[in-house]
Amino acid sequence: MPELFSLEYPQSLGVYDKYADAQKAVDYLSDNDFPVQNCLIVGTELRQVERVTGRLTYARVAMAGAASGAWLGLMVGLLLGIFSKEGSWLSTVAGGITIGIVFGITWTLIGYAATRGRRDFSSVQKVVATKYEVLVEHKHLAAAQELLVKMPGRKVDL
Question: How much is the average pLDDT of 126-154?
């Protein structure tokens, strides 16, 4: 797989502020019969962005633990219910959900208590690129540049 994400002697064809613009340039090259298998789009100037989604309390943590435990318990209960021969299938599923809820609440509260208030908020994280560079194999650079000069509405730093 590493050779799939590399070129032998890559040269910069252009730098774009938006991924869509870099994608549009490669698509234009493809539409004009350029061998686009010799191109890479590389996200550069990476930043980690964290969006705070809310405040954590013991009640919210317990609710989240109950919800995830219920799903896990449902899955286990359904699997056990399918293969069990004795008793009610519904009671096996209900028992799995109940055990899952108790397990989920217990472990999430233990984990939250272990942080001792150092992280009393929930969030989601994402790594984003602020620039996108189109690289092309060195032997195709001139042809790609000639094509991109003709591209209508081009936005590129050559």
Answer: 91
